[in-house]
Design brief:
single chain; 332 residues; alpha/beta; Rossmann fold; four-stranded parallel beta sheet; 39% helix; 14% strand; binds phosphoric acid mono(formamide)ester
C-alpha cells in the first residue's frame, strides 16, 4: 500500500484484513510498536475532534510521534496549484512544504474539506492529489473533498462487530441540515458498503444525487458481487426492512458556488428528513450510525441517538483501531 486515499484503491481482501487487524488491536490480541522512532505529520486544513485525537493517540500507541500542522494557523498558508505567481495571500507552496516535511516524517496525513465552490474542480480532490503527487512518503486521507476512507473503514468494522460478517441491508439517508456539507462521508460509506458485500439503499431528495462516476463504481462493484443498490427520494419508504441506518447530510452538486440557493432548496425538507423513532420502527431493528459531529434534533432525534440501537460512539472509538491498522500497513 503506497498511500491510503480511498477504499476503492484496494480490493476486498486487503480491506477485510485491515478490519480484522483493527479488531485484534482493539481486543489486545495484536499489539506492537511499528512506529518506534518514527514521526507522522498530520496536516489539518479544517477542524476535527475524532480524527485529530484518534490519529495522535494511535501514533503514540504505535510508538511514534505526531507532528500536527494547521496551514494558515500554526503553519504558513499553502498554495497547491502549479505555475501560480504567488503574489496573493499564500506564503508557501505545497511542493516545498511536502519536500521539507518528508525529511522529518515517515508519512503524512491530510484533512482538506471541499469548499463547495466549484463542483467540477473539487470532485477531482486537487489538494489531496497534490500531496500524493509531491510526497515520496505515504499519504493518508483524513477526509478530503470526496472521500473519508478512515471513517468508512471504522463504519465497516462497527457493522461487523455489531451485526456479524453476513451481508446486511443498509440505508444511507440524507438528512436536513441548516447548510450544505461536503460529500466525503456519504461517498466513502456507500463505496465501502458495497465493497464489503452489503445491499445498499441510498435515500435523498431529488437533486441531491452523489457523483455520477462514483455511483458508476458503486454499481459496478455491487453487480460484480451480486448485491443490490437501490435509490429512493421517498423518505416514508426508505427505512423499510433495513438493518443499518446511516444518516448524513450533504450539499447538492447543483449548488456548489451558491450556498444560499442550496439553503433555500433544502428548507422544504426540514420536517421530513430527520431520523426519528417512527422511521426507526419501520426497520428490521436497525442500528443507527453517524460519523459525528451531529446536530441533535436536526439530523436525528435525542430518542434515537440515545437509544440502545445507536452505535455512534463505537464508530468513533473504532477510528482509533482501524487507523492503527492502516498506519501499521502503510508505514513499513
Ligand atoms: N467523523 C470525523 O471525522 O470527525 P471529526 O471531524 O471530529 O474528525
Amino acid at each position: 500500500m503506497d498511500n491510503f486515499l480511498k477504499t476503492s484503491d484496494l480490493d476486498l481482501g486487503p480491506l477485510d484484513a485491515l478490519v480484522s487487524k483493527a479488531i485484534d488491536l482493539k481486543s489486545g490480541s495484536a499489539s506492537g510498536r511499528p512506529l518506534e522512532g518514527k514521526s507522522v505529520a498530520l496536516v489539518f486544513f479544517n477542524p476535527s475532534l475524532r480524527t485529530r485525537a484518534s490519529m495522535q493517540v494511535g501514533i503514540y500507541q504505535l510508538g511514534g510521534n505526531a507532528v500536527i500542522l494547521e496551514p494558515g494557523s500554526t503553519s504558513w498558508t499553502l498554495e497547491h496549484r502549479e505555475g501560480v505567481v504567488m503574489d496573493g495571500n499564500k506564503t508557501e507552496h505545497l511542493k516545498e512544504f511536502v519536500r521539507v516535511l518528508e525529511r522529518y516524517v515517515s508519512a503524512i496525513g491530510v484533512r482538506t474539506f471541499a469548499e463547495l465552490k466549484d463542483w467540477e474542480l473539487e470532485r477531482t480532490d486537487p489538494i489531496l492529489k497534490a500531496f500524493a503527487n509531491y510526497a515520496s512518503v505515504p499519504v493518508m486521507n483524513l477526509e478530503s473533498a470526496m472521500h473519508h476512507p478512515c471513517q468508512a473503514m471504522a463504519d465497516m468494522m462497527t457493522i461487523r462487530e455489531k451485526l456479524g460478517t453476513e451481508k446486511k441491508k443498509i440505508l444511507l439517508t440524507w438528512a436536513w441540515h441548516p447548510k450544505p456539507l461536503p460529500m466525503a462521508v456519504p461517498n466513502s460509506f456507500a463505496l465501502a458498503a458495497v465493497q464489503f458485500g452489503h445491499d445498499l439503499r441510498i435515500a435523498h431528495p431529488k437533486g441531491y444525487d452523489l457523483d455520477e462516476e462514483l455511483i458508476g463504481d458503486i454499481e459496478r462493484i455491487a453487480a460484480d458481487q451480486g448485491n443490490n443498490v437501490e435509490y429512493t427520494s421517498d423518505i416514508a419508504e426508505a427505512f423499510d426492512g433495513v438493518e443499518v441506518v446511516y444518516a448524513k447530510s450533504w450539499g447538492s452538486k447543483n449548488f456548489y458556488g451558491d450556498v444560499e440557493a442550496d439553503i433555500t432548496e433544502r428548507a422544504q425538507y426540514r420536517e421530513e428528513w430527520i431520523v426519528n423513532e417512527e422511521k426507526m420502527s419501520q426497520t428490521n431493528d436497525a442500528v443507527f450510525m453517524h460519523c459525528l459531529p451531529v446536530r441533535r434534533n436536526v439530523i436525528v432525534t435525542d430518542a434515537v441517538i440515545d437509544s440502545s440501537r445507536s452505535v455512534v460512539v463505537d464508530e468513533a472509538e473504532n477510528r482509533l483501531h482501524i487507523q492503527k491498522a492502516i498506519m501499521t500497513e502503510l508505514i513499513k
